[in-house]
Amino acid sequence: MKADWTRLCQLLDDDQELLEAVELAAGDPEAFLAAHGDMLGELGVTKASQIDPWLAMIDALDDAGALAYLEGDDAGEELADALAALPRIVAAGAELDEVSDVEDSLVAAIVVADRLLAPHGLRVVYLDEGTEDVPLVVVPVANVEEILLVADRLDRTARVYS
Predict the structure, then answer these.
(1) In terms of pTM, does the model score above 0.85?
(2) Residues 64-82: pLDDT tens digits?
(3) What is the Cα–Cα distance from 149 to 127, expressed in whole angstroms?
């Protein structure tokens, strides 16, 4: 299972701190709790048995600046703003103005974003954390299928919208 967590992190982002945090959460929850106890305590996590590597991964992606974190009732304008700050989008020089025009739903906006990102070899992936929030990461198209497979092996949900 550790190999799956490692591979998933590698597919999502190349941030070393992401990899280290998730490997620690998956392999030694006691050590992860000791290292992140202050922050986890604020979230009500006080026992190693409460540590979830998936949530640690989402937090580490956010810390690395690789996550667009939205609310379920957001739409195009919020998505465009969140995506525009992600390093892969900046590096690709992708234009997302058309995403801002989508007012009916976040899912519809993600579909438009995927269409605009495709020529840049990028895709939006949703990482379900079991809340109404919508954590999104932008990854190379070539990684998407394996991300979905590895997440499934780990009994987690990652998906694309188009």
Answers:
(1) yes
(2) 999 999 999 999 999 999 9
(3) 13
